[in-house]
Design goal:
The protein is of the alpha/beta class. The protein is about 45% helix and about 15% strand.
């Protein structure tokens, strides 16, 4: 891989992918709608060229994909727009890849796995999503597999990290930075996975650089499952955060959802805060080697430092 296109380059995982690709000596086209944001993130990167475009406009994606070996799909949409936008977006990306004979690497979440009672979910686990959003993600995966394009489908748990702002953990950290009362979404006693974006990107780029990893699913787990209580303890001990932290329950989300479309869509995903899907990384470890796993203490500190620097302007 000499050149890659990262769609959604101003998002949390998109930003991490651009950084890791550059680290690996790959030329990158950073693609997003926000021209100012692209410039703010990448104007000093000599290996990054900026393309301000719309992932739902075929001409933009085809133009940006000219000469690239791999297209990384890291585009996210607000929950309430998934039904309209994700299927169209994947069609456009497939057409662009076919036209330029490029591969596709899809950043995927855990929604397509549905509810799982197993302790660790492997790549071959049967996918039976019971939510609208899980069904959409599975349809995206199946569309890629029906194409003739070599593709990587990489499942990661909830993200956190520098520039990762549309995430559940960011809801907590954004008020920690402001030294205000923070919210924690879900039961603080349930251990869930949160993956540091730079770890996820490092593992995904390693997969994308190889020839024998395509047309497969891959799970990239976090360092380990962690409870809200343990995260709060890190914030108290390592960061010196002293304000109170409110637990946001499913009932509260349902109430807020009466007034906010995003929260209305969030309700069906709250099962993951009560009965989380935990990923197995055994396939990756057997084929590639150790999974990058930044300790939560370090990852949370790095994320908060990044947020503090951004707040200073």
């Amino acid at each position: 891989m000499k050149k890659a296109l990262v769609l959604g380059a101003t998002g949390g995982i998109g930003y991490a992918l651009v950084r890791e690709l550059v680290e690996q000596g790959v030329e990158v086209v950073a693609f997003s709608r926000g021209k100012e944001r692209l410039h703010a993130l990448y104007q000093n990167e000599s290996k990054v060229s900026i393309y301000s475009g719309n992932a739902l406009v075929e001409k933009d994606v085809i133009e940006a994909a000219d000469g690239v070996d791999v297209i990384f799909h890291a585009v996210s949409f607000p929950y309430q727009e998934w039904m309209d936008k994700h299927p169209l977006c994947i069609e456009i990306i497939v057409r662009a890849a076919e036209m330029h004979q490029a591969k596709i690497a899809l950043v995927d979440n855990i929604y397509a796995y549905g509810m799982q009672s197993k302790i660790e979910v492997i790549e071959d686990t049967k996918k039976e999503p019971h939510t609208k959003k899980g069904k959409i993600r599975l349809a995206m995966e199946n569309r890629l597999k029906r194409s003739n394009v070599p593709c990587l489908i990489v499942h990661m748990p909830d993200l956190y990290g520098p520039n990762a702002e549309n995430t559940i953990l960011h809801e907590t950290l954004k008020n920690v930075v402001l030294n205000k009362t923070a919210n924690f979404v879900g039961d603080i006693k349930v251990a869930r996975e949160f993956i540091f974006t730079l770890d996820g990107a490092k593992a995904m780029v390693e997969l994308a650089l190889r020839e024998d990893t395509y047309n497969q699913n891959w799970n990239i787990p976090s360092a380990h499952p962690i409870t809200g209580e343990e995260i709060i303890e890190i914030l108290r001990k390592e960061v010196g955060y002293k304000k109170s932290i409110r637990t946001v329950s499913k009932t509260m989300i349902q109430f807020i959802g009466l007034f906010q479309p995003f929260m209305r869509e969030m309700v069906e995903m709250m099962y993951l805060t009560e009965d989380p899907v935990i990923l197995s990384g055994k396939k990756y470890e057997a084929k590639i080697g150790p999974i990058p796993q930044t300790p939560y203490k370090k990852g949370i500190k790095e994320t908060l430092n990044w947020m503090n620097e951004k707040a200073k302007g």
